[in-house]
Design brief:
This protein has 13 helices and nine strands. The protein is of the alpha/beta class.
């Protein structure tokens, strides 16, 4: 018997639909789908104040703002079948210290995820994902946010094969390249990718690890596209799109096409201020609008989910935690999306890109 505290919503889909105030159709479609999140940042709070990922939490002191949006029991209850759990890099450490700290954090995260083996399996490709889900488990992929975690000389040589993706830069400029954040500075005279950054992309290609272009400045984005192996899919795990709401954090249509041209996917995140004009009054309809724009701009094979749960975000008021995720399906249905398109967004697009990256 599982020691985790959660309900199996498949036992009462009608009740779940009533609780969420949505149609039974939306819940049934959701429960019949692979649901994969490309960016779960909850481990950062384990590092900061010991947030127990195996414990079921409430909305926390801030009402699910900034943190307490997800944990393993709630992800299981929400039927999130897979997700990329990320280790975020502290840029204030030196290169060797960042490397050592990452190794410690990787060991700690895998220990936490491995502490509930009946509920979670750490996976690195689509075949392992399928095996985990067939056993009724959440499939946990591993990722790094901030490639400077491993920018010391030789740090990528022995990259753990379980790392499925690395976000090249985060909120600060590094030896790899320049962030999209408005406080950015040049990286050694560069305003895109540095020479080290260009080589970093090539090394990730050699390792068949997703090059994640979230957070990177536009020039660096296209520097990466230029040197990237075009046979491998690019990925942007958590972003918004300027076609719906202009923001320094979001992608324009040319960037969307560059990702789609490689067979890649773009995950839409849930930070309200990136999705629309209001930080505190955002609604889940905005997430649907961003996903819909991706579909209409580059086709239905390239949109995905990339929540950034617990990444210090302020989520929409009506979708503050992972437990309300089926509401997004309702909004997509109301936009006239086909069931197949919605299922692609929920998980199938990422799985297709993953099979392209790491063929069985």
């Amino acid at each position: 018997m599982s020691k985790l505290e959660y309900r199996d919503m498949r036992e009462d889909p009608a009740g779940w639909a009533k609780t969420l105030g949505i149609s039974r159709e939306a819940v049934d479609l959701y429960l019949a789908s692979d649901v994969i999140d490309l960016h779960i940042d909850s481990f950062i709070w384990t590092r900061v104040f010991g947030y127990d990922l195996t414990k079921r939490h409430g909305p926390g002191a801030l009402g699910a703002r900034f943190y307490s949006q997800a944990d393993i029991p709630r992800l299981r209850e929400a039927r999130v079948t897979g997700g990329i759990w990320v280790i975020t890099t502290n840029p204030l450490r030196g290169a060797e210290s960042r490397r050592r700290t990452f190794e410690k954090n990787l060991a700690r995260l895998t220990e936490v995820l491995g502490s509930v083996p009946d509920e979670v399996a750490i996976v690195k490709d689509a075949a392992e994902y399928t095996a985990a889900v067939s056993q009724g488990k959440h499939a946990a992929f591993l990722g790094i946010q901030g490639g400077n975690a491993l920018d010391a000389d030789g740090a990528l040589d022995d990259l753990d094969p379980r790392i499925v993706r690395i976000t090249l830069v985060h909120l600060s400029t590094s030896s790899i390249g320049v962030t999209s954040a408005p406080v950015h500075t040049s990286a050694g005279g560069h305003f895109g990718l540095t020479t080290r950054g260009l080589d970093y992309v090539k090394q990730l290609n050699q390792k068949r690890t997703f090059v994640d272009l979230a957070h990177i400045a536009r020039r660096g984005f296209f520097d990466a596209v230029r040197v990237h192996d075009p046979s491998q899919p690019l990925i942007v795990t958590h972003t918004g799109v300027n076609g719906v709401h202009r923001h320094w954090r979001n992608l324009d249509d040319e960037q969307l096409r560059a990702v789609a041209d490689t067979g890649g996917v773009v995950g839409v995140m849930y930070q309200a201020s990136f999705l629309g004009p209001s930080m505190w009054r955002g609604r889940a309809t905005a997430i649907a609008a961003h996903l819909d724009h991706i579909v209409k701009t580059v086709g239905e094979d390239h949109a995905a989910l990339g929540s950034d749960w617990d990444g210090a975000i302020v989520p929409p008021l009506d979708m503050p935690t992972c437990l309300e995720l089926p509401k997004l399906v309702e909004h997509l249905l109301r936009r006239g999306m086909r069931d197949e398109t919605i299922q692609k967004i929920l998980g199938r697009n990422f799985l297709r890109a993953l099979r392209q990256l790491r063929p069985s």
